[in-house]
Design brief:
This protein is an alpha/beta fold and 439 residues long. The chain is built from 15 helices and 13 strands. Bound molecules: nicotinamide-adenine-dinucleotide (NAD). Nicotinamide-adenine-dinucleotide binds next to helix 7 and strand 8.
């Protein structure tokens, strides 16, 4: 187990133009967004210095026995960005492209997201660099348990609380919980349930958590639609990534009368101008692992996907998917960022010039961490809240935060991303100015 600290801030690479890859450096891009917001809200130099790097960067290597008897070494990360407002909180990603700077960027976004929503948590993120699709369920279980063990006392129910992200799910969280519970003292075992959120219902999860991120995206869209006098009923939308966030957002939007005309995932893109049924498509994905091959659609290219005739675009895959080329191609009125960090700063500028609204990630996709916080509270109090109660509390929080962002954006003539960062940064700065630096 080792810790690594990077002293210098990397510079942002250019956004993709003709080619989509290689991707830019997410941490550098998040820092670029941060610096813009720091200027907009006149953040003190001291707070800006503190926030320029995460507090802790943990890198672990751990061996796992494969089904065929061989041993494989895995590399895992846990970045604890900031905890001035409460315990570190953030998802764990399983993906072959996970890097230190990606996890640092995602951890920083968690700090802003919790602060924006006034959730008493800080920001963290974790990841293991491997492709989960290439492993059996029993291998995934052993990888998860070994990773949890390698993290050791660096996570904990009052210190750092992981959750699902791309490539992980409720089952992954239950394995983490069980591993963690079994290495702490017997008396405290049951108080350890809240070491992770996003668990299954039977193992202490919250009603409404699985769909929470998608639910939150749609609350933001309905607020946006009200402001813009736009009718979601009858609108067309496209979704990039049809996993947890993409599929739930699509199902809820369809219930509101909107039509999904194109979607895509790691394998390819599909379209049907008459509409794709997200419920049937989710069944197809559960059976085959991808949207590709769905029989009520034609296959399209990535370029055709971004050029679709639609009103709403929901990026819900991974970060840095929308560069200049994609921003110019999109024909939509609004982009609601289900994914974390999907948009390059250059693309943001193009959206602004073209009058396309962007509901930024830390606002749009925060339904997940909000219900994670509810789950943590329920575990702490040994309570189980009804679905209606969870949904009502989530709706109230999402709409309240959306309105706060809109008000600051109007007052200071800011884009929504900068306004959302501004609210978050002001909360963090107030805490630092009251508490100072110890010793
Ligand atoms: P997931 O693994 O369930 O789904 C990811 C989807 O993206 C899959 O359909 C996958 O095939 C697709 N995808 C991967 N690479 C792609 C590529 N290059 N092009 C197109 N599609 C691609 O993950 P998820 O939990 O839905 O997370 C998606 C995004 O939302 C991530 O950015 C994540 O950080 C963010 N997010 C998730 C949550 C949550 O509660 N799960 C909360 C907030 C934000």
């Amino acid at each position: 187990m080792s810790t690594a600290q990077t002293a210098t801030s990397p510079s942002a690479k250019a956004s993709p133009s003709a080619e989509q890859h290689p991707k830019g450096n997410l941490f550098a891009i998040v820092q670029q967004q941060l610096e813009k917001a720091i200027r907009a809200v006149n953040l003190s130099k001291d707070t800006a210095v503190i926030l320029s790097q995460p507090k802790n960067e943990l890198i672990v290597h751990f061996p796992v026995r494969m089904d065929d008897g061989s041993l494989k070494l895995f590399k895992g990360y846990r970045i604890q960005h900031n905890n001035i407002l409460g315990p570190y909180k953030g998802g764990i990603r399983y993906h072959e492209d996970v890097t230190l700077d990606e996890v640092k960027g995602l951890a920083a976004a968690m700090t802003w997201k919790c602060a924006l929503h006034d959730i008493p948590f800080g920001g963290a993120k974790g990841g293991v660099k491997f492709n989960p699709r290439l492993h059996s369920k029993s291998e995934l279980e052993r990888i998860t348990r070994r990773y949890t063990h390698a993290l050791g006392a660096n996570i904990g129910p009052e210190f750092d609380i992981p959750a699902p992200d791309a490539g992980t799910n409720a089952q992954t969280m239950v394995w983490i919980m069980d591993t963690y519970m079994n290495v702490v003292g017997f008396n405290e075992k049951n108080a350890m349930r809240r070491v992770v959120t996003g668990k299954t219902i039977a193992s202490g999860g919250s009603y409404g958590r699985e769909a929470a991120t998608g639910t939150g995206v749609v609350h933001c869209l309905t607020e946006w639609a009200r402001d813009r006098r736009f009718d979601i009923n009858g609108a067309n939308y496209i979704v990039q990534g049809f996993g947890n966030v993409g599929s739930h957002t699509a199902k809820i939007l369809s219930r509101l009368g909107a039509t999904m005309v194109a979607t895509g995932d790691y394998k390819g893109y599909i379209a049907n101008p008459e509409g794709l049924n997200p419920f049937k498509l989710a069944d197809h994905v559960a059976a085959t692992g991808s949207v590709v091959g769905y029989k009520h659609a034609k296959t399209i290219t990535r370029e055709e996907f971004f050029g679709s005739e639609a009103d709403i675009f929901i990026p819900a895959a991974l970060e840095l998917e929308i560069g200049e080329k994609e921003a110019k191609a999109l024909k939509v009125k609004v982009v609601a960022e289900g994914a974390n960090g999907p948009t390059y700063p250059e693309a943001d500028e193009i959206f602004q010039q073209r009058g396309i609204d962007v509901i930024p990630d830390i606002l749009a996709n925060s339904g997940g961490v909000t219900v994670s916080y509810f789950e943590w509270l329920q575990n702490k109090r040994s309570e189980r809240w009804e679905l209606e109660e969870v949904e009502e509390k989530l709706e109230r929080r999402m709409k309240r935060t959306y309105q706060q962002v809109r008000e600051l954006a109007e007052e200071k003539k800011l884009d929504f991303r900068t306004a959302a960062y501004g609210i978050a940064l002001n909360r963090i700065e107030t805490a630092y100015s009251e508490r100072g630096i110890f010793p």
